[in-house]
Amino acid sequence: MESDCRIPMSCLRPRVLVLHALFWGLVCLRVFGSALLSEEKPTVAKAVTMPCWQVEEFVVATECTLCNAFQTKRQLACIQTGYVERINCTKSNKEEYKSCRSAVMEEHLFWKFEGAMLGLTVIFALVVIGRQRSLDRQASEKVRRQIESI
User: Fold this and answer.
1) What angle do CA 86, 40, 95 make, to 5 degrees?
2) In sequence order, which residues have a C-beta less than 8 Å from that of residue 102 and are 6 or more positions away?
3) What is the pLDDT of residues 42-82, one digit of tens each?
4) Pair (86, 63) in one structural domain
5) Which of 15, 56, 74, 76 makes the best surface tag, with the fewest CB within 10 Å?
6) How many domains does the chain have?
7) 1 vs 115, which has greater pLDDT?
8) What Pfam families does the record point to (predicted)?
9) Residues 91, 79: one domain?
10) Which of 88, 104, 84, 106 is closest to 96 using CA atoms?
11) Which of 73, 88, 79, 82 has its CA nearest to residue 104?
């Protein structure tokens, strides 16, 4: 009599369970860690040193452009994404640089992601085909042994 359990017994081995826990732990750490890092709460000390574009309205003077080697070393705004835009704050009349995300960069990241997904699809399709062939071989071997035992 077979069990009604839908989880294969090989999935309940301690090594497999530890690998699953490690994988999902890393995924959760990545997701929740980035969420926690992105939620910066301004404090009183930060309000003084905050860039003008975070506190007041601004006008974009130069659209999002790629930082050169000098800007990457000297400007903090270039370090985050590698792209920067020049802005003018309306009230304080200051000119500052703000990190931005370029459409070209986003498109490049999108196609890298699509390529990775296509590669993984091919790899896992080959794994499934190999596993199916292995199972078919085992089943036919089992049938052959049953016929021979008659």
Assistant:
1) 15
2) 64, 65, 66, 81, 83
3) 555 444 577 877 788 888 888 888 888 888 888 888 888 88
4) yes
5) 15
6) 2
7) 115
8) JTB
9) yes
10) 88
11) 82
